[in-house]
Amino acid sequence: MHGFKVFRLFVLPLALLFAPVPARALPMQPDGLIPGQSYHWMFITRGAIDSTSADIAVYDAFVNAEAALNPDLAGLSWHAIASTATVDARLNAPVNGPVYLLDGARFADDFPDMWDGSNVPFNAVPEIDQFGVVRVPDSAPWVWTGTDHDGTAQGAGLGGIDTWAGRYTSVFPTWLIEVHLGSNTEFPIYALSSPIKAQAVPTVPEPSGLALVGIVLGSLVLRRRES
Hints:
By secondary structure, the protein is α+β, with helices and mostly antiparallel strands. The protein has a single domain (38-197), classed as Roll (Mannose-Binding Protein A, Chain A), CATH 3.10.100.10. It has 5 helices and 9 strands, in the order αβαβαββαβββββα. It has helices spanning 2-17, 56-67, 89-92, 111-114, 209-226, and strands at 38-44, 78-80, 99-101, 106-108, 143-144, 162-166, 179-182, 190-193, 196-197. The protein is globular. 32% of the residues are buried.
């Protein structure tokens, strides 16, 4: 019986110490934000949709339905980074602070950085879907946007017979616009969250592995003395 007590006091805590750490829920607040500062999340939908509608509400509803597939995104509202003949992407998905992909990569600093027409900032790849992983292009390598590099509608935007789609490359700033395609084809959409206010994140120091081992050994020594 005494041997079992030793096992329980020493071996079981060590098992807990080296047990796998469960994955953290998505999304975690990015580091370096000031409490109260606005920021956004951004993703590319895993699902796809055609671009035959000229109603921006259709695309907003689509990206919100896609976000709802991940329970960890509950409570956030989303806007399609897309343009129609009457609505520009930069107005439909307004940027009020830094923009982050759901893998934690910083995509843009602010509104001017988002729509300045330059290559993708920070070399962040905007192919992270609503589950925080790279979307497999499969049969839909393009992304419907109907939008020029500055966030305004290109041509008639989404809803025309043909419309513009983007695709990320490491050479050209084509995540918003690259090819003119038939609108009946289904492609994904980029989504941007409404502004989120950064919260103060308490810093709670975690004991190191050696410290935990010391606690366990100390408990064992005290128990032996008591017995």
